[in-house]
Amino acid sequence: MTEFRFELSPFNYKKVHGRKGVVGDFGEVTLEVERRKGFSRESGIHSEVRLRGENLPDTVYRTVGPGQPTLKNARLLINGHRCEMRFNSKGFRNASRALKLTYRERSYEYSVTRFEKGATLSRPGSLVTLTHGKSSAAKGMSTFGTATGEVDSIDLALAIVFEGVDTLELTATGAVSETLNRLLNSPRRNEPIGDY
């Protein structure tokens, strides 16, 4: 069993923002978040989160729609192979809303520990914990990670890529927000449903 810590500091360029740093023996890692046009006819905009690293697999997370990448309309690829994602949108606790990931023969659970404060990615024998705090090297908030157990490059790639994704839906706050949004945006009894 091993344990190591790392820090990913924020950066912000004209079209790309993200985090970068050295992740133990896995070397330099860069997480880039970029918005592009032309991916979808409906929205015309898509977001791509890409993880690059010396010893990490090529990891790409894509979503359709405006704003920060979300869990809706998303596709996650590791070395070109799809990683399945699902979560219980009806749960009212963070633990019950955890994201279940399946990549090849591996099963993971990604849980947001506290709203905008951190998350964990786990599988049997492996745990990656992420928290947020003031950066030691740049302005803004860094991601601080702790890897425990038999953590490998796929574990780290999965944990880090979600630092570029809005995971509010995995929190109890997200559940309340979703319920309120549904109530406020659903048609009233006397209103027609559909196009005008």
Order of helices and strands: EEEEEEEEEEEEHH
**What Rg, in angstroms, do the CA atoms define?**
18 Å
Quantity of strands, as a count: 12
Strand content: over 45%
Question: How many structural domains does the protein architecture include?
Answer: 1
Give the helix/strand class.
mainly beta
Helical residues, percent: 10-25%
The description of the largest β-sheet is: 12 strands, antiparallel, barrel
**Amino- and carboxy-terminal Cα gap:** 62 Å
Shape, per Cα inertia axes: globular
Largest beta sheet: strand ordering: 1-2-3-4-5-6-7-8-9-10-11-12
Enumerate the spans where pLDDT stays under 50 for 5 or more consecutive residues. Answer: 187-196
Report the average pLDDT across residues. Answer: 84
Number of continuous helical runs: 2
